[in-house]
Design brief:
The protein is an all-beta fold and 248 residues long. The chain contains no helices and 20 strands. It has strands spanning 10-11, 15-18, 31-40, 49-64, 68-76, 78-83, 86-91, 94-98, 103-107, 114-121, 134-137, 145-146, 149-156, 166-173, 189-195, 197-202, 205-210, 214-217, 223-228, 233-240. The strands form three sheets. Strands 3, 4, 5, 6, 7, 8, 9, 10 and 11 form a nine-stranded antiparallel sheet that branches. It has an eight-stranded antiparallel sheet with strand order 1-2-18-15-20-14-13-12, with no helix packed on it. Strand 16 (197-202) and strand 17 (205-210) form a beta hairpin. It starts with 9 loop residues before the first strand and ends in an 8-residue tail after the last strand. The chain binds (2S)-amino(carbamoylamino)ethanoic acid and manganese (II) ion.
């Protein structure tokens, strides 16, 4: 029998590892017939929110974006998404970026569908328009080598323009592939493992990580990862970008 007092989850002031064994469901107004796990939010000290929605029969997600933009990614399953007056079908690996000031409705969601969301307060930039709604498919996004290492591939899902103040990327590591350095940076991350396993180093502590786990890394949380096992490790992650770095 599993000992229920054990978990790989850990929550620190500058990072967290959240494995699904500790999930407790939240009720989110407008998101019906589903379980919602709020994995990262400002109560932790983060500047983003990350949730995972798992649909039951008859699930619908209805709401409007206000100060925060929302990125919705279908981890598995199928749904129909209407953003203002545009409707598209979304299935595994497809996504929609919803800018501020839009209404959204997800319906016709297959039971068991899992949808990941990243939310960030949008910071306007003088001289640049607020981004438009953007539907996309990760399988159509090229995955060039990362920093010249063929064991690492990086897909950038959102356009590389200053209008966007957030990035969402998918990072694939062949088994044995690893980050070429310990990253030490101001940008924050939220991430979800989509496939595989490996070892993450967070602030000089070492954690085994696998599909289904999430990680929050605060600014300057030092980070490094190596993939292990029989299949590539894949994670989707959020990063804040493109804005002036200081209030001073
Ligand atoms: O974009 C990044 O900062 C990325 N290389 N970080 C990470 O995967 N932990
Ligand atoms: Mn990083």
């Amino acid at each position: 029998m599993e000992i229920s007092a054990l978990t790989r989850s850990v929550v620190k002031s500058n990072y967290a590892v959240i494995s699904p064994d500790g999930y407790i469901n939240s009720n989110v107004p407008g998101w019906t017939n589903c379980t919602v796990n709020v994995i990262i939010n400002e109560q932790m000290g983060a500047n983003l929110c990350q949730t995972l929605i798992t649909a039951k029969e008859g699930c619908t997600l209805t709401g409007s974006t206000k100060a925060s933009q929302i990125f919705f990614y279908v981890v598995t399953g199928k749904s129909k998404a209407t953003i203002s007056s545009t409707t598209q079908e979304l299935k595994t690996g497809q996504f929609v970026y919803v800018p501020i000031g839009k209404d959204y409705v997800f319906e016709g969601i297959e039971e068991g569908t899992q949808i990941l969301t990243f939310h960030k307060v949008y910071e306007k930039l003088k001289g640049y328009d607020v981004p438009e709604t953007l539907f996309g498919d990760a399988t159509d996004v090229p995955g060039p080598e990362y920093l010249g290492d063929p064991a690492l591939r990086l897909q950038v899902l959102l356009p590389d323009t200053l209008s966007f103040d957030m990035a969402v990327n998918i990072f694939t590591y062949d088994s044995g592939g690893h980050l070429p350095m310990v990253e030490t940076h101001i940008m924050e991350h939220g991430l979800l493992y989509l496939q595989g396993q490996g070892i993450y180093m967070l602030d000089h502590h070492w954690y085994p990580i696998k599909k289904g786990d999430s990680i929050w890394m605060a600014p300057y949380c030092q980070q490094w990862f190596t993939a292990m096992g029989k299949e590539p490790a894949v994670y989707i992650y959020y990063k804040n970008i493109n804005r002036f770095p200081t209030k001073i």
